[in-house]
Amino acid sequence: MSEVNENKGMIRRFLDLPTDSLPKTIFVAVMVCLVGSMFVSAAAVALRPIQEVNKLLDKQVNILQVAGLYEDGVDVAEAFAQFEPRVLELATGEFTDQFDAASFDDRAASSDPELSIALDDDPASIGRQSRFVTAYLLRDANGDLDKVVLPLHGYGLWSTLYGFIALEANGNDIFGLQFYEHAETPGLGAEVDNPRWKSLWAGKRLADEDGVLQISVTKTAPAAGADYHVDALAGATLTTAGVHNLVRFWMGEAGYAPFLANLQAGDI
Ligand SMILES: Cc1cc2nc3c(=O)[nH]c(=O)nc-3n(C[C@H](O)[C@H](O)[C@H](O)COP(=O)(O)O)c2cc1C
Question: What region holds the FMN-binding domain (predicted)?
Answer without folding.
Answer: 156-254
